[in-house]
User: Fold these one by one.
Assistant:
Number 1:
Amino acid sequence: MPVYNCRASLGRALESVYEQSLGRSAGAGAIEIIAVDDGSTDGSGEELDRMAAARLGLTVVHQPNSGGPGAPRNTGIDRASGEYVFFLDADDHLAPEALERMCAMADANGTDVVVGQYVGVGRQAPVFPRDLPRTTVAETPLLYNTLSPLKLFRRSLLERLGLRFVENLFSHEDMLFTAQAYFGADGISVVASYDCYYWIDREDGTSSLQQGGAPAEQYFPAISEVMSFLAGRVEPGPLRDRLMLRHFRHEIATRFGARYRELPEEEQALTRVGARRLVDAWYTPGVETGLWPRSRLVMHCLRYRLDDVLAEIVATDPDGPPPPTVVEKDKAFQAFPRFRDPATALPDHLYDITDRIGTENRLTEVSWTPSGLRVIGRAALSGVTERQETTLLLRRRGEPSAERRLPARALPPDRFRADIDLVADETLDDGAWDLYVEMRVQELTVVRQLRPADDLEPPERRLVRGGRAAVPARRGQGLELRVTAAQPGVVMTLESADWAADGVLRITGHVPSALPSGHPVEASAELLRRQDGTVVPAKARASCVPEALNLTAEFDLRGCDPGRWTPWVRFTVDGVTIRVRPPAPPSPPRPGPAGRLRQATPYRTERGGLSVKITPARAAQAARRFARRLRG
């Protein structure tokens, strides 16, 4: 751990190592901590000495300030004796199981480098989608996006390759080290399923990168060495372009941000000269394709020495709102300075964003209407002020050719409303239909999956034509409309349950539906005796009204034998019969007579259904008890 003027975070960083599960599972001596104080002036060195006196396993080394973290890291490597070496910055900290999981991954797969999942705090950090037991940079180019040394290295790898950090460099001293380790390693592992490393930006803005990094005279030769090493290990082609893109995006384009405008004129000139050399050596059409217009324009101006145009490009804020988007037929351009300026004649492709135009896409409301499902949301091509056409697309999962296009009505500003008609004769086939939105300006068409707002709750399922059910639901980051057979999930909503007359139980309720009013429906009902399956028919009627299928059933209990009876209601829609069990109300009806010498008691089952228990009436029970006593 290199330490320079970070006393406030030392305790957290070291405590995260002391709390490692590896130290508990493999013994206290499994972890050796080497903290190298690189001439701190804020008391960090004295704080390290105090901690070392109180805890075993911490070795503190003091040395004069070297001007960067490379020299103290090298001191640590020279003193390390473990099988593995991990580099921890004093601003950051580890998750409790980080070292155990990474060492286990290396042990199991024989790999020389293990990358643990990063968590950025106040900064962006690379994120890996899944664990990779064994890979290479060629197989997983995403690895090259992180050239920091905040990883686990097999110490034999460092000694075999003689790897050490560039010294006396304020920033980016680690890139060549990590690149050489990647390409010289016998396999690389990734632990993505566990957040291992908390990568923290200093709140006071004093880190090397927050201060702008090393000066141009030191910075660009260091970056050139890394890019030259990469070019020597990877043949020209798509893979080299993919890896070189990382350097043009993060090490070159970033030097021409807001901080560039604050540099003295001499440092600006040195920056242009240093960056131009890298552009002349390694910038290719394949790299250019991966950059956004602002960065493309910077590289173009550097290559062709258009310093006056470069000044205008640099004056745009890379972190601010992008310039307007201009659409011409099926192309989109970001109108950065000098776009279509005949005096400069910069090529259009520098400004082209057709394949990566941004969108504002959010589903804010989903609700049922008498005829189907209504969706309301926001959909717009970013930066485009022209009028656009919006279309809702339903695509059946697994069948790309199965698509329904529904016109959307514009709701200013940049909102739309679309209705999925489930009443029309032509209904959606069974299956899962994902919702997309198509945005069109002139001949430019962009399709994106609709993303529900975080607080959006899809409505309940509804009965539709053909005796099926339509169920809107979240799926991943999108919304699906699933159309299925209705029976498994149809639920009757109870409105009332009471006695219509002595021994006649009347139940009214409804099933949510998207059937048109007056749609033909037939109904029947029955009582089922649970002991032996005896069935007693009952009366029922049904009718379709807006957004509901109303049901009424009357169960005559007067002819039913003692026992437990379950009421069921059936209704038939478009030739499909669906059987539902009425739910019990919170307070079931009071007991009532069920014919001569019998009593009916409605009750709620454990699963919330309505049942009726029929027993002999109390007077009859008393008479029978008296008769038994007389016989006795």
Number 2:
Amino acid sequence: MRLTQALDRAVQQRAGHPATIFRGRTRTWAEFGDRVRRAAGGLREIGMTDGDRVAIVAANSDEFAELLFAIAWAGGVAVPLNTRWSARELASALADCRPSVVVLDQTFIPAVEDLLAEVGDRPAVVGIGDGLPADLPSHDALATTGIEAAASERHGDDLALICYTGGTTGSAKGVMLSHRNLVSCSLMWIATLRFDDETRYLHSPGFFHMAGTAPLYALTLAGGTHVIVPKFEPVEVMRTIEAERVTYCLFVPTMLTMLMNHPEFPDRDLSSVRDVEYGASPMPETLLRRIMQDLPGWRLIQGYGLTEATALVTALPRRYHVLDGPLSTKLRTAGRAAVGAEVRIVDPDGREVPRGTVGEIAVRGPVVMLGYWDKPAETAAVLRDGWLHTGDGARMDDEGFVTIVDRLKDMIVSGGENIYSGEVERAIYADPRVAECAVIGVPDERWGEAVHAVVVPQAGHEVTAEEIITHCHAMIAGYKCPRTVDVRSEPLPLSGAGKILKQSLRAPFWAQRDHAVH
């Protein structure tokens, strides 16, 4: 299994058909393949060798899509980084993965020295997109003037992608995904989500997320068309769907709310869309009813997954997205195991529990990661006896439908972004006036969950909620910062072992709900 085989197939069978559409610019699969081969040759020319990491900090574009395949073609390992991270977070990840090449768009080029300050051997720097300095090598130059490279023979369990996910201790972990993982995931997406060569798929999630990269690889294998926007923005998304006759989208429910509440929504023709996958949080019934009423041609499918399982674990197919009748009873579930994934619910010792009993979701199959980059202890903690232990609490019914009821790992999902409480707490504790703090997820109508902090100041000191929030914005990405802060004088509740009882802090917020998380 090699990622390059997907591109070979698309070029062979769909040479004259559109491969990418980006802000009105269309390139065919023949053009896409030519640019990938030349860019791969260019990467080798500037010093990339087999297994080297190539880090990318850029907004989505057709060039970004080419680059991901060019890195695989040249035998490298792609490391797309979250553009919403702070400079401090990006610098830490770059120091961790030790790339030989760093690719930046115009937004990040001015900060290049700060970003590379912690990297040992200085990597080559390449620009991508528009507005680049004249003296900086660019992806476009590599893709047009480079000498074509032969496809790398790296395959199977060879490392192909490192995708960073948050860390419970405050440092992000690099999830290592192989060629086998990514090709298996592509086959899973085609079988489960029904991609084909006529699919015109809108890429609005960032390519630094598996929700962005997984469909890129899968749709290439299917030979469809990638319609790309730099990031999710309601107006550009709606106008792009209308102009390019997009047929397939992936949205977080929060994105759907933003689309449907936008003043332009009633005037936009979104009738070309046939299929919409959503995930990261349950679909509110009010939003579901509205979609069915205002967009009756849209067929909904829910996906649940995680980066460590190459994005997709379970799926709830279209036929269960109904409000009445016997099938409607499955609407609150996360669906059943996707094609190619084996799922079971287990106790703390890894034994499968009886149906209907709450336990931890465990996953096995060719989509499970190789492990965490340079973190053997963390890898061993989640990969046990061939199973990936997800940290999500759930139960399974007699038909295999999984209902997520709790989160065993200390994570918050807000607007589709994973936020680890430990990382936020670490930022808060950097304020010397803070004696104790705990960060929890609380219900939020727009984002699913919102970050809430409970803070106890040091004796003799005062701190306000606004000061804590401002302090966090200087330390971590904005979406990770608390939206609300409770400053209290009494100590936080502790267990017998001295651990903060976050369940007690969360309970009042979730008391009237049948789930402890979104």
